[in-house]
Amino acid sequence: MTVARRPDPATALRAALIDRGVDGDAVDGITLEALAGCEIDVDDPPLCAAALLDLGPAAVVDALQNGTGWAGFAERLSGALAEVGDVRGDAARDVLWSLHLAAGATAVATLRAVLPDTDVDAGIAELASSGVVRVVHPSAGGATSGSRVALRLSGIGDAVRESRGRLLAGHADSMPAATLALDLRTVDDIRAAAADTARSVPRVVVLRRAMLVAVDRLAAVGRWSDVVALVDAAAPALAAVGLHRELHRRVQGMLGSAQDAPDDVRTRLRAVSADLHLASGDTTVCRHLLAAIVAPDERAVSWRADLLAAVWAVHVDDRAVLTAVDRFVAGGGSPAAAAQVTLDLAARLFGDGRTADAQDVLTVAGVHAAVAGDPLTLARLHVTEAALHARIGESAVGRRRVAAAYPLAASHGDHAFVHVLASCVRPLHGEPGAEGVARVADVLDLAAVMDGVDVDRRRVLADVVADVGVGMRGATAAPAPVSAAAMLRSLYGQVAGGVSGVTGPGPERLTDREQQVAELVATGLGNTEIGARLGISRWTVVSHLRNIMRKWDCASRVEVALQYRDGEAG
């Protein structure tokens, strides 16, 4: 028997957009890949295409991966949906109701906790067999033993109709208590994850969506101690892998609007906001917030903010920075904080072309990183060393350093390894916008051909795009002096650029749209101007430019422009 393979989701989404009479570039390729990696499975491309055109990509990604505005999003879609399955069993209906209250996805263990009198496994089995839900990250024991369960896009109508039925049957009074039970379970799960230092990052990343939903709902009912517990526990883990921006926007929103919150809560939220500003490289705002907080546990954050401001100043005094680091450690300061500052200093010197000085600083950073023992810090050390070896032509040594970084970072999940590489050599300071997402996509392209590296590309893109925000702009720092893609290509050769090492008939041909983009790049136009000229989004321009650079084996837009002009001259 021949089993029909499901078409590639991103390709199917693009085809569905074209079927609706829209240019296939109406939504850029990276966003389509991200949608294909969302926890809410996009199993109905025409429906998703309609939502993209009706609500916009930002709202769709926000609902499917962040859980934001779930109720309104689900109601908006439900009118276009027929019931997927014939949901009859009481257990299945209970699970469906709870899934809808959980914004479409939750852990199986959570359902068991909030539905103690329901046969949750039987309910999930019925829903899965009828195509309403899928079990995510299943274990070997079968579908219902998987760790998470999520609605499919086509199953949202079933969930909405179950919700309406219960409300009409007079169960509205039970909804706040049921919702609160789910959110308090999330608080417990996040705190337990944060306490598990060896696995806190991947566990918090998996719970990120539920955490964002819970923060909104708990703040709305004034449960401030639970809100603080959530953001305190989640912020460090998400910042460690660059997935902190959506949480930070919520914290900033609460500081701006929740005037009724107790003073101690607002003080703690300011401290978290300061930490997250520092994670985004905004030392000025971080220092401003900390100036109003008297908190001994924020000493390392305040010190790092001061030193990083000096590291990334117009002119850096590396000796003064190293002296300050020595004093900090001698006074009992955190070796991990010292390692992060010295790694930033090495990156700055590397970007300035001071390779020998950067190597000296890396030696100091290595001592602090070894004492701290943090795997992510050690992974960043290895990748920075790899960049230095790439610059001086020692590709074999550089490859060994990247290979050493992978198990250290990957022990904290796929996002950790990708973030360490994408931050090379200068961290992704500020809100990276389309450029930052494109850098992550570049790294994912290259990681796919590295021996022994296994990264779930679409899952990573789904979280990164949802966290950065579709179409966000305004990077606050200069571009990285050496991109991760360029560094990795120099280490891994043409294969890492997506080009076969076997001699073939010549470079891959550009599509007509890519040819147009290359021509406009050669004229000196920026991404925004190119997008306006061609009637496509800036993100789509970035996506086309990535394809051009891969096909032409270019490391920068300057090389694209030169190669285009050479071709015209020839």
TrEMBL record:
PROSITE patterns xref list: HTH_LUXR_1, HTH_LUXR_2
Name the keywords, alphabetized.
Answer: DNA-binding, Transcription, Transcription regulation
Per the record, the domain of life is Bacteria
CDD domains in the record, alphabetically? LuxR_C_like (cd06170)
**Pfam families associated with the record:** GerE (PF00196)
Q: Which InterPro entries match?
A: Sig_transdc_resp-reg_C-effctor, Tscrpt_reg_LuxR_C, WH-like_DNA-bd_sf
Q: Which residues form the HTH luxR-type domain?
A: 503-567
**Protein's UniProt name:** LuxR family transcriptional regulator
